[in-house]
Structure formats: C-alpha cells, structure tokens
Design a protein that fits this description.
The chain is of the alpha+beta class. Helices cover about 30% and strands about 40% of the residues. Strands 1-7-6-5-4-3-2 form a 7-stranded antiparallel beta sheet. Helix 1 packs across helix 3.
C-alpha cells in the first residue's frame, strides 16, 4: 500500500485566531463550510476542537463514498488533527499568521492507498479530487470569516 496525500492552502483576510476558531467550531460553523460532497454531518461528542467526535460521509467520486468518524485533537496551537476511526485517513488543519490581518490555512490529508493498479490510479487522481473539495471548503471558510 502506498501512502496518498492531498494538500491545499489558502491565504484568508482574517487573523489566525478567528480562522482557527471557525474551523474548530464543529457545533455551529464547520457544518456550514462543507461542500456538497459531504453528507450526514453529525457532532457526536464535544463540538469545539479537542475532544470532538464528528461523523460525515464524503463522496469523493460518483462511486466512492467514505464513511468517516473523526476524533479531533489539538496537538499544538493553530493545529487541528482529525483521525478517522474507520480508516487510516488523517487530516491536519494548520492556521498561521500571514501578515497584517491575514492568515494561511493549510489542510493536508494522508491515508494508506490501495495496492496494485487501483493504488496507482488512487495515488494519481485522488489528491487532485480531494484538493478541489478542500479548495471549495477553504473558499467557504474565507467567505465566513471575512464578513
């Protein structure tokens, strides 16, 4: 199995604390940011950063739906880590200052891909597809916090 990684970033016209707080707010804000590929969003425990348990389904392609149950940790300031209990998938959100009143939000997802020819196609195409999904999510985040 090859490790597959998808990373997307965006500079947002809001301070890092505001951006991070919006991302960490699973109870109110995060669900509003999710593009149409996400469904069945539900906060099962917590709701604000560390200690949150959140569920959703991610339809990455017309045939591939991932049922995700994510445990959220905050290992360092400005970083959220979502570990999927149902797979090897780990998503890390990092928010850092990027100048006066701006921040940079980076989302990186890694997982153990399939082997063989299927794994080749997954490693080749999945990062681009997931990148488009996260680009839309980061655009929605920017719209939310730049109000």
């Amino acid at each position: 199995m090859a490790q597959v990684e998808a990373t997307t970033e965006r500079v947002i016209a809001a301070d890092a604390e505001t951006v991070f707080d919006a991302l960490a707010d699973y109870r109110e804000t995060r669900g509003k940011l999710l593009p149409g590929q996400f469904s069945e969003y539900e906060v099962r425990e917590g709701g604000d950063g560390e200690g949150t348990l959140v569920h959703w389904k991610l339809q990455a392609t017309s045939k591939r739906v991932r049922d995700c149950l994510l445990e959220v940790t905050e290992p360092t300031d400005g970083r959220l880590v979502e570990k999927d209990r149902n797979s090897s998938m780990v998503t890390t959100w990092t928010v850092t200052p990027a100048g006066e009143g701006k921040s940079k939000a980076v989302v990186s997802t890694v997982w153990n891909g399939a082997g063989g020819i299927g794994g080749f196609f997954e490693k080749t195409f999945a990062p681009k597809g997931l990148g488009r999904i996260y680009d839309e999510l980061l655009q929605n985040l920017a719209t939310e916090v730049e109000k």
